[in-house]
Automatic annotation (TrEMBL):
Entry membrane topology: Peripheral membrane protein
Annotated Gene Ontology cellular component terms: plasma membrane
Subcellular locations according to the entry: Cell membrane
One Pfam entry name: oligo_HPY
NCBIfam families from the UniProt entry: oligo_HPY (TIGR01727)
Alphabetical list of InterPro entries matching this protein: AAA+_ATPase (IPR003593), ABC_Ni/Peptide_Import (IPR050388), ABC_transporter-like_ATP-bd (IPR003439), ABC_transporter-like_CS (IPR017871), Oligopep_ABC_C (IPR013563), P-loop_NTPase (IPR027417)
Protein name according to UniProt: ABC transporter ATP-binding protein
Species the sequence originates in: Candidatus Marsarchaeota G1 archaeon BE_D
Keywords tagged on the record: ATP-binding, Cell inner membrane, Cell membrane, Membrane, Nucleotide-binding, Translocase, Transport
UniProt superkingdom: Archaea
Span of domain ABC transporter: 5-378
Length: 444
């Protein structure tokens, strides 16, 4: 199957008063559909910058010097800008970054989303949790909300019984075609969120499913919901818009309850009525993950999502990330901690000074690292190292003036003459593993 995401030769620089920082240096990376890719490296290696560049949230003082970000048939999301005169670079670069932000508005939050380290920074302290989850669906996918409410008002008890029979005896695809024939597509996620609650007895789940058929709505509500589906302009007029938003957000809160319950949040009906400060750190991070997942994005980028949490809560969130695969999203999980990635990732990419230096299956990276930097990084992880723990010797490079050739050469115990002169390229080593080091080919 084709890759969901491909980053090709991405180079990004930050312009500051102290100089130009070359933060991404020819990044090459691909992400398969449905996989969790871990991204590791010391602090300052460019992990967050890469995550933000993929989702198009690039700081205004950045220049994308070259490269492509290819995402799920959208073509290149980034247009690079190369100028010889640095004054022009900043000005034109800013214009391009603004264009980029605008272009990606309809993709961000819908097809790709991001979870940051501090959940409080992503939540509005003044709004209820349910509203905050509902609003992202309202903004990107109002039709889905209208379809959900209309489908409940349309479906009969008899049809619900037939649906329950299908769930018990047949493939999911048969349910999908049944719903589509009857024009009840809006019921699909509501049905599945109940049916997948295997902690409830079958009798209870059946009762909950049957109660979906009680969704009577007023004639006015029906008119508005149908108008949303048909994209009638009249419902964008200020006087009707407020009413439209009210009924769609109410439906969004219903979806929020389903999402939180799927994410293992106890008492989701109560949680949607709460404000962020009333929740624990772990619970807040689940809410942020729920917001990131609300529109079933194809890609979720998680930047150190567990670093601000204490250990037991961290374990809960990691369990949750493992379960996220059931939502059909691919995940880039950024962490400076390889022991965290060992738990959740299918593959791991190691970043050093803005380049990927090794990438492979998690098992390959953890049990038989090849690149000297990966070896050093692993030796510095207390829980993964059976030997004495060693910090990585030497300083992280100054990205204004990075070392020539292999950026790791000043710290590498195996450095050779060629390492100072040329930059090694990622080269396939064994199976799916690629390494950028002259000890292992590193061509050129
Ligand atoms: N907007 C910015 N302007 C200038 N430098 C920045 C900016 N954002 C990040 N940097 C620098 O880029 C480097 C990489 O940062 P970052 O991507 O946050 O690394 P990581 O997430 O791996 O810790 C750091 O040296 C950081 O100081
Ligand atoms: S290319 Fe050379 S300096 Fe770089 S990691 Fe390999 S051996 Fe060390
Ligand atoms: Mg970071």
């Amino acid at each position: 199957m084709s890759n969901l995401l491909e980053v090709k030769n991405l180079r990004l620089e930050f312009y500051t008063r102290r100089g130009v920082y070359k933060v991404l240096n020819d990044v090459k990376l691909s992400l398969k559909r449905g996989e969790v890719l871990g991204l590791a490296g010391e602090s300052g290696s460019g992990k967050s910058t890469l995550g933000l560049a993929i989702i198009g949230l690039v700081a205004e003082n950045a220049i994308i010097v070259s490269g492509e970000v290819l995402f799920d048939g959208h073509g290149n999301l980034i247009k690079s800008a190369i100028w010889s005169d640095s004054k022009f670079k900043i000005k034109k670069g800013r214009k391009l970054i603004k264009q980029l932000h605008k272009q990606l508005l309809h993709i961000r939050g819908k097809e790709m989303s991001m979870v940051f380290q501090d959940p409080m920074s992503s939540l509005n302290p003044l709004l209820k949790i349910g509203y905050q989850i509902a609003e992202v669906v309202y903004y990107h996918n109002p039709k889905l909300l209208a379809q959900r409410a209309l489908a409940r008002s349309k479906v009969t008890k008899q049809e619900m019984r037939e649906i329950i029979d299908l769930l018990k005896t047949s493939e999911e695809s048969n349910l999908v075609s049944y719903l589509s024939q009857k024009g009840l597509d809006g019921l699909y996620e509501q049905i599945m969120s109940i049916w997948q609650r295997t902690n409830l007895s079958e009798v209870k789940r059946e009762r909950m499913l049957l109660s979906l058929a009680n969704g009577g709505i007023s004639a006015l509500e029906k008119l508005v919901l149908e108008g949303v589906i048909k994209e009638r302009k009249i419902f964008d007029l200020p006087i009707v818009r407020r009413y439209k938003k009210k009924i769609l957000v109410k439906e969004g809160v219903r979806k929020a309850v389903e999402l939180l319950s799927q994410l293992g949040v106890p008492h989701p009906e109560k949680v949607v009525e709460m404000y962020p400060h009333e929740l624990s750190g772990g619970m807040r991070q689940r809410v942020v993950i729920a917001i990131a997942l609300a529109n079933n994005p194809k890609l979720v980028i998680m930047d150190e999502p567990t670093s601000a949490l204490d250990v037991t809560i961290q374990a809960q969130v990691l369990e949750l990330v493992k379960r996220l695969k059931n939502f059909g999203s691919s995940i880039i999980f950024i962490s400076h901690d390889l022991s965290v990635l060992a738990e959740v990732a299918d593959r791991i990419a190691i970043m050093y000074a803005g380049s990927i230096v090794e990438v492979g299956e998690t098992e390959q990276i953890i049990n038989s690292p090849k690149h000297p930097y990966t070896v050093a990084l692993l030796a510095a992880v207390p829980t993964l190292s059976d030997k004495e723990i060693k910090g990585i010797e030497g300083e992280t490079p100054d990205l204004r003036n990075p070392p020539s050739g292999c950026a790791f050469h000043p710290r590498c115990p195996f450095a050779m003459e060629i390492c100072r002169l040329k930059k090694p390229e990622l080269t396939v080593l064994d199976g799916n593993r690629e390494v950028a080091c002259f000890l292992f080919g590193g061509k050129k």
